[in-house]
Amino acid sequence: MTQIPHDHPRYKSLITREMAVEGVKKGITSTQGLIAQGRGEAFDYLIGEYSTESAKEAERAATAHLLLAKKPVISINGNTAALVPDEMVELSNIIKASLEVNLFHRSRDRIDRIIEHMESHGAENVLGRKGDSVLDLSHDRRMVDHEGIYSADVVLVPLEDGDRCEKLSEMDKVVIAIDLNPLSRTSQCADVTIVDNITRAFENMLQYADEMKNLNYDKLREIVDSYDNNRIITLAIDEITTWLSKFSKESGTKRL
Ligand code: ATP
Ligand code: MG
């Protein structure tokens, strides 16, 4: 891994990039995954590289949904396995969720490698090898495990495809997306849209899960019922606009 000095102003972003590159070298992340990461970085730059109020509100509602769920599943792909393996294991333990590998660029080899990688980070019983049920899609993300995503009531889909997100919603599942692009089809169709970097989103959700794990049903229901995803997406876009106009004014001053 390239050495990034700790005092670099964009240390966290550069380390995350290096982790994605390591993922490719280990054969768990696809090369296309690097392009997705680059697109994410661009949106993160426009957001200001921090967890906004809208992101935190969505993360709180997502955590409440996961704690209320009867059968929650966290979907894993090559990018999330490279960037947040420990955090996915930790969250799945707190909320009692299954972990399932689901890939757009699916191959038996890569599924095995991702599962082994997750096991080396403490995961147990990772699903995704069977692919014994299908969603109504024409690409490989249609293949899911019956005991996992197919029968889940709440699915956390970090870095998802818009069309699979739509299918999961049509199946009456609660879909929670993490996507730095508030305009993507995934963001637009999810029930809870977290516009945040997955590295920050998992950190925040772990904290919320710890704070909320002993809340009773009524309290969790209250959080879920008062949540309005349309308002959160609008707010996420407004936050980018506000950040950009602040930035534009400040750099205008510097130029003068
Ligand atoms: P859609 O099919 O929903 O329109 P897309 O085709 O734009 O989405 P992909 O190319 O599959 O999406 O990329 C996945 C998405 O993940 C991108 O929108 C990108 O902004 C986002 N993304 C990439 N890296 C991260 C990250 N580290 N944290 C959060 N989101 C990320
Ligand atoms: Mg896509």
Automatic annotation (TrEMBL):
GO molecular function: acid-amino acid ligase activity; ATP binding
Alphabetical GO biological process terms: coenzyme A biosynthetic process
Swiss-Prot/TrEMBL catalytic activity: (R)-4-phosphopantoate + beta-alanine + ATP = (R)-4'-phosphopantothenate + AMP + diphosphate + H(+)
Organism superkingdom: Archaea
Broad EC category: ligase
Pfam families: PPS_PS
Family statement: Belongs to the archaeal phosphopantothenate synthetase family.
Name this protein carries in UniProt: 4-phosphopantoate--beta-alanine ligase
